[in-house]
Design goal:
The chain is an alpha/beta fold. The protein is about 45% helix and about 15% strand. The radius of gyration is 24 Å and the shape is globular.
Length: about 475
Amino acid sequence: MIVSSILDSFRAVLKADERIRVYEQSVDEMSGTAAAIVRVDGVKMLAAMGQRAEAFTGEIRDGLMLAPLTTENSRALMEIFPYTKPRSHKDHPYTIGLGDRLGIATAGHVRAIKGYNVYPVLAQQSIRELTLTNRTFADVIGCAAFGVFQEGYKDGYGADGDHLKTKEEIQYALSSNCTMVTLDCSEHIVAHAATDSDEEISAQYAQIPEQIRRHYEQVYLGVKMPIIGELSEKDLRRVVVEFWDAINHAQECYRYIDEIKTTEVDFELSIDETLTITTPAEHFVIANELSAQGICPVSVAPHFNGAFEKGIDYAGDLEQFNKDLTVHQEIADHFGYKLSLHSGSDKFMVFSTWGRIACERWHVKTAGTNWLEALKVVARNDPALFRRTLAYSMEHRSEAEKYYHVSTDPSLIPDPDLESDAYLPEYLANPSSRQTLHITYGQLLSQDWFREEFFRLLDEHEEDYYQNLQGHIGKHLRYLTAEGKA
């Protein structure tokens, strides 16, 4: 521990005020400024003293700056204590995205990764999630910074602008200090091409600019490619019709990132938002076209065999998944990037396989599972609120289905009016109710009756929530590293 006159003075002032409870792991000093996360009369705040304490906006009391945990103050925190600022994970082989829709999960996530050689992307949100939760990238990163500081965690973390689709969204994310861009090319993929007839494909192929067609034909026809071998003219046409515009878009966005970035940015390509499984030929051609332009993503997310739905475990043919994953991993190894598993929350059935086959490097994304762990706190401590929450979720599930593909049957949810209070946490284990609660977070968080009581309850049971996250995310990591090398 650093010992200095300012730190000693800071500790003395904190100790003298009986209304202040200190998060001891957070106490730190840099550049002549001491700071800590504290609770003052039950309200969580940042306390600071020293040369740069007035960089924070708050109230000065007995020489102590007491500042609320605002986005503005998080920016000052990141300047004074640089380890609280996100940075690239490019050189880390094992990474996990831990999206926090509530802004209060970081401490639990930090505890969960302890002991694992896994670099966390603690701030991870999509534009859709920001809209549904009425947040900003700056807010998401600020909450992560405060959580990192609270735990005294100094090993680095990333911030992912997830599923960005346009240059405008990329600019917004990078200007907010995101260190990762996950480019979602779904709006540039001709999804129906995967199932169109050969005649339909030929007609669509003829509409593509001649120079584009000539390029692909010269590169791929009559050439034996690594891993996938030689493509037939028919197969090449289908790949080009479906993906040539997405490849163009990815190249343009990568160059745009290169133009505007002010620090290292991790570029991930998402091609999983399609109606059909990504074939090895599709994956190879996309990667090869990027490589020809000098572009090597940090990671690529194909659409794997089986269902990766929100909130529930994998559903599909595990043997086929293993075969497909093996080939996709060969392609990733050939071009030098990680495979990325999206909707990776709770996919325990595939984690050990993933860790074994993608053993040299991988990225896995989780998001809504921390929201479900928060609902467990509600179920255990406020049965009335949980019953109302579940009833509202069931009533509004159809609205949430506009944003998420789900397949569970809501008619299989046990009637909450017929179940005891002790049974309520089991609704988070039932796939139908778990998925229903998972996808309706946006509707619930927009309701004052829910939001106010929900955050009050989680604040009151803060340590219980952290323990839930530590156990649940820890389970993800145990499965992922069981047969891998992380």
